[in-house]
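Handout, section 4.2: multi-component inputs.
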Amino acid sequence: MSEPGKVKATPLQVAKAVFWSFFGVRKRAQYEKDAVTLTLQQVVVAGIIGGIIFVLSLVMLVRYITR
Amino acid sequence: MEAAHTHDHAHGHDDHAHHPTGLMRWVTTTNHKDIGTLYLLFSLTMFFIGGLLAFGIRAELFQPGLQYWEPEFFNQLTTMHGLIMVFGAIMPAFVGFANWQIPMMIGAPDMAFARMNNWSFWLLPPAAILLVSSFFVPGGAPAAGWTIYAPLSTQMGPGMDLGIFALHIMGASSIMGSINIVTTILNMRAPGMTLMKMPLFVWTWLITAYLLIAVMPVLAGAITMVLTDRHFGTNFFNAAGGGDPVMFQHIFWFFGHPEVYIMILPAFGIVSQVIPAFARKPLFGYASMVYATSSIAILSFIVWAHHMFTTGMPAAGQLFFMFATMLIAVPTGVKVFNWIATMWKGSMTFETPMLFACGFLFVFSMGGFTGLVCAITPIDIQIQDTYYVVAHFHYVLVAGSLFAIFSGTYFWLPKWTGHMYSETLGKAHFWLSIVFFNITFFPMHFLGLAGMPRRIPDYAMQFTDFNMIASIGALGFGLAQLLFVAAIVKCARGGEKAPANPWEGADTLEWTLPSPAPYHSFVTPPVIK
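Output:
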């Protein structure tokens, strides 16, 4: 899906986009930037990592409560 | 969004050239509009069959004691009502909308795999025949609930086999339909239509299609294991042979919970098209809507065991699934907020599609809140398997999915038929539906909180009054749906000529086409500026 010569997003940018997608809110200017710089591979990888972090943080919270 | 196109009128003259006519037109069609119509008619038929079964359920529950049915048959009624409504009515209706609308909304000439599209649809009638004919085999239809939990499902008569085959076929149809939709959306958008310029209905369907591809094989796996347990001596779910019946529930709900979102995300999409059109304002927070939809889709994979709190699980597990489930309220809340913000200070008018969209917002939110109540583990342990849960999921599925389907139907009928529907019929349909819907399902909250179990043909005396009210409401709701058919038939047969864009505020590509939409549209892609 990526076109040659376009600027790739930094890992931090990808992480931010994925974080906000989990929350379900995004500023217009930010998403417009996302739309041109993010590649599909970056989003999928970051999404999987984000999902794992999300599940692990829930598990840690649960551990903390039930210890 | 603006589009420039000049080609469609020129092609008008050969609209039906080289096509079989009569019945064969529908059997052999590869046209997305014809297939969309087939899906919608199929779904309407199944909606009435499922509704008839609901009548049977509510008739029996009008009074305590056994009036009409043996308990075994009552279980068949509840099971088949669920299976038919989920797999026969709601899901195919949304695929019908996808077929009609997605190519027109993204400026594509047709779906990517036109022949597979035909096959996806024509798998459904045989599956429906298998499913419904299970009533007539020895032992009757599946009676294990729509969740077909083992060991009930491993012990039933041949009706369960017919049900399993039907689900397999419908699953294959759904997977093919989804592959088609994903391919179409990713590859066939008109030049200039980036992903973030797509109408929200297209976005929600893209995400739904991914969900379908991810979870339909899981359902197929679960029911195949039931099938081999039944006939080939395996013991996946048989505790006596070393298996585990609870494993079935885990596998089923790993499919079942995303399935819930499969049935609601396209509804969100429809409402997100209708509300801006009738508020005459662009959708508030488009980007947030897209992100919220994907968030809901992601979360849907990690909440499945909230359906199973009472099966016994460690406190840590209960807390995990409780927290994860409650977090879904965040993106869902974002959506509801955005819809209301879209209406805020808009120039609103309340034609039938908007009425159903507003009804959706009001009643779906109530269903969402009762969902949160169910998500709280200690409360769920009290109310699971009671009428509270029945009330909850009918609020999200009838008032959510079904009302959105009604809204979308009235919204796009002028484009599909070339005629305006009768506003009088539409409004009567809406008001009767929303009133009778609440008469039917609101008392069920009280019944559930008072402890009335679901899936029973008889109940204790103290539940009588609310059950009578619910049954009267159900009769009214069912009869009100005849108005829907009347409105569609009247609109299809004639009426006021619809302009290309009958709605002031609608700005997606399909409204740039004449009404009715020509048989072949966007042969030359429009250019999106």
